[in-house]
Amino acid sequence: MESVKIANGKTPVLQLKEVSVSYSPGSFAVNKVSTNIYPNTITAIMGPSGCGKSTLLRAINRMHDLYPHIKTTGEIILKGKNVLAMDPMEVRRMAGMVFQQPNPFPTMSIYDNVLAGYKLNGIRLKKRERDEIVEQSLQSVGLWDEVKDVMTKRGSFLSGGQQQRLCIARALALNPEVLLMDEPTSALDPISTNKIEELLLQLKKDFTIIIVTHNMSQAARISDNSMFMYLGELVEHGNTTQMFTKPQNKRTEEYLTGVFG
In what residue span(s) does the ABC transporter domain sit (predicted)? Predict the structure, then answer.
C-alpha cells in the first residue's frame, strides 16, 4: 500500500477509498467516499438526517456485518490493514464505538463493564492487569474518583453523563487506533455534554476521534477537521475553521447557513 503523507510528515491512521454502502442493489446510503483521517485529531461528520453519516461510521468497524442485506465495497485502510478483509472482532478492537444512547451492559458491574471487550474477545487477564486497565480507563474519562468506591454496582446506577463516560472508558480499555462516536452527547444535558466535549479534547492527545454530530456548534468547538455529507456523498472535507468561514462548496455553505438541514 502506498504511503500517503501530509506536510508535517504524518501518515493517515485511516484511509477511505471509494467506500460505498448499499441496503439494496443500486441504492446507496454511502456512495464512493474517499478521504484520509490523521492521527490525534477530532474529525466531525456533519450533514442532514439520512445523508449517510452514521452508516459510514458503522462501516468502519464492520457493524453492518450483523445485517446480511447490507453490502460494503471499496477499501477502509486502518493502520495499513484493509478492514473489510479482517476478522470483525479484530476490527472492533482497533475501532472502538460509542453510541448515541449510553449503553452500559445492565447486568454487569461498573468494573466488568470496563472489561467487557476483553471478555467478548476471550482475552484472559490476571487480576492485577484487570485492576490496572479498569483504573486507567476510568481515570482517562474522569470517572475514577466518582465510582472507585461503588465498582460492584451496576452501570445503570450511574447518571446519564456518567454512563456515557463509562461507555467511552469501555471503548478505550482495548486501546483502539480510532474512537468512533455516533452523536455521543445528543441524549445528554448541557452540563454532561460540556464534560464529554472537554474529555474528547483531552483524549485526542492519545487517540484519533471521529464524531458524527447534528450540532454544528459542537463541531466548531471541538473538531480539527470536518466532513460534510449530503445524499450519501462526501461533499467537502477540510479544516473546520476554514470550512465554517470559507466553505469551498455551495451545498456546504447552504447547510452551514441553515438554508437546509
Answer: 14-256
